[in-house]
Structures are given as structure tokens and as C-alpha cells.
Q: What sequence folds into this?
């Protein structure tokens, strides 16, 4: 099952806010939802899905294993707890959210446990998030490149992560872009705004279309119906070669997500 090009992100959305966001997104036609154990919203997402009436088979649900649950004896139990909260017997994709801080849990240990979770039918696909080239190489050595469905990474016009993307592509590993709108910073960029004006589109649609046109999946979040609807329309926006080149030129290595004590040594 391929990863949908556009899904709903739920980072920082809690309580009734995330219930409303998921409910509205499903009404609008979203069918992919991205969450994580550390977001603290899996139960609310499970409630919103259950109340939506959308058949489980039509959905693509992703969750991520938090660093405290990476050991061989905790990964699968923690995933089962996530499934209970999400009110499903499986997720479509399970990611390692961040590599184990300071290598406390070896890559071989948590990737083996993740592969076992897939073998048990708890998840259809497995992958990683925030992995560098070196960490991807270690993961590949354990489960093989074919088993890694995606590497979910910060990627936006100001941080295009080209070295990591090129390596992943050379191994056939798909890229999922998070923070595609750069916390909204890229939406204020004159180049993005000019392209949006040419296409009678929004800056958000341009940024999302740029990433999808490069072959990445995107998972923007929003709590406003008009923004959720607008983001969904990005799938129909086609940017010209000139547009793509102009956005490519915005690269400036501006990393926005770099949590101290958790982040690896970036490429």
C-alpha cells in the first residue's frame, strides 16, 4: 500500500481541537491521518475516526514510536496501547519517531522489534523519522531497504535536505515531508507569494504542491476548515519548471526542529 501524497498532520493538536480537526478533514475527503505516541492525541483521533463513519479500510493511519518505547520489551506493547487508543487492530504505517538518544537503544534492537510488529500484523508498513544517512544505513542493514516505507523528515523550501533525499532515493526509500510550510515562515516568502499569485493559489498550496511534485508525501495540519480544504486542493496544482527552480533556489539550510538531547548529528 503506497503512502498517500497528502495527509492530515496532528502535531500539537489536543483534546477537542484535534477531534474537530480530524472530523472536519474526514468530511472534506482526507483519508490519511498522521499521529504519534508523544502527541498525546491518539485516543481523541480514535474517537473522531469512530464517529466519522468512514470505513477503516478507506483510511491510512500512521503513528510513531516514542524514544522511551524503543527497547525490545516495550516497543510492541506500546504499539498495542496505541492501537487500543486509536480503536483499530492495526495501523497502516508505524515509524520510529526519533533515533534513540545517544544510541541508548541500538538501531538493530528497535528495527528488529518494529519488523516483528509488522510480522504480527500490528502494522502494515514500517519506517523511520528524523533519520540521517548514517542511521538509515544502520536500519537498512537490519531490515533491508525494501522494508523501510519512508523516512519522515523536516523538509520545506528553506531546508530541502538534498543529501539525505538523494541517499534515500538511491535506496528506493520514500520521503515524507513534515513542517512543509516551515511553521508558516515560507508562506511569507515573496517568491512563494508571486508563484501563488500566478496560479491563483494560496502560498500554502504552492509549498505543498512543490513537495508533492518532487515525489514527497506531505502532512500539513490545520484547525480551520478553509485551510484544510485549501491544503487538499494542492494535489491538483501543477507548478511549472520555472516555479520549481525558483523554489529550489530558496534553500538556506534553515532547520526549525532540532530538539536538544534527542536530535542526531544532522547531515
A:
Amino acid at each position: 500500500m503506497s503512502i498517500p501524497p497528502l495527509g492530515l498532520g496532528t502535531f500539537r493538536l489536543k483534546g477537542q481541537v484535534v477531534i474537530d480537526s480530524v472530523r472536519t478533514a474526514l468530511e472534506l475527503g482526507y483519508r490519511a491521518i498522521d499521529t504519534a505516541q508523544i502527541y498525546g492525541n491518539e485516543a481523541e483521533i480514535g474517537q473522531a475516526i469512530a464517529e466519522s463513519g468512514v470505513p477503516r479500510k478507506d483510511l491510512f493511519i500512521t503513528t510513531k514510536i516514542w524514544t522511551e518505547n524503543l527497547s525490545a520489551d516495550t516497543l510492541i506493547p506500546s504499539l498495542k496501547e496505541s492501537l487500543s487508543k486509536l480503536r483499530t487492530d492495526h495501523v497502516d504505517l508505524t515509524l520510529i519517531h526519533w533515533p534513540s538518544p545517544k544510541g541508548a537503544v541500538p538501531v538493530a534492537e528497535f528495527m528488529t522489534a518494529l519488523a516483528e510488529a509488522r510480522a504480527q500484523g500490528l502494522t502494515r508498513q514500517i519506517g523511520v523519522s528524523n533519520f540521517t544517512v548514517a542511521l538509515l544505513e544502520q536500519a537498512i542493514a537490519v531490515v533491508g531497504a525494501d522494508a523501510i516505507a519512508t523516512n519522515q523528515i523536516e523538509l520545506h523550501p528553506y531546508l530541502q535536505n538534498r543529501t539525505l533525499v538523494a541517499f534515500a532515493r538511491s535506496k528506493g526509500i520514500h520521503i515524507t515531508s513534515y513542517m512543509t510550510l516551515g511553521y508558516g515562515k515560507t508562506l511569507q516568502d515573496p517568491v512563494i507569494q508571486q508563484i501563488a499569485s500566478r496560479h491563483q493559489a494560496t502560498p500554502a498550496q504552492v509549498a505543498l504542491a512543490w513537495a508533492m511534485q518532487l515525489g514527497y508525501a506531505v502532512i500539513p495540519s490545520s484547525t480551520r476548515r478553509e485551510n484544510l480544504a485549501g491544503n487538499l486542493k494542492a494535489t491538483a496544482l501543477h507548478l511549472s519548471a520555472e516555479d520549481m527552480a525558483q523554489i529550489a533556489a530558496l534553500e538556506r539550510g534553515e532547520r526549525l526542529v532540532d530538539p536538544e538531547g534527542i536530535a542526531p548529528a544532522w547531515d
Q: What stands out?
A: Residues 154 and 179 are 6 Å apart (CA to CA). The mean pLDDT is 98.
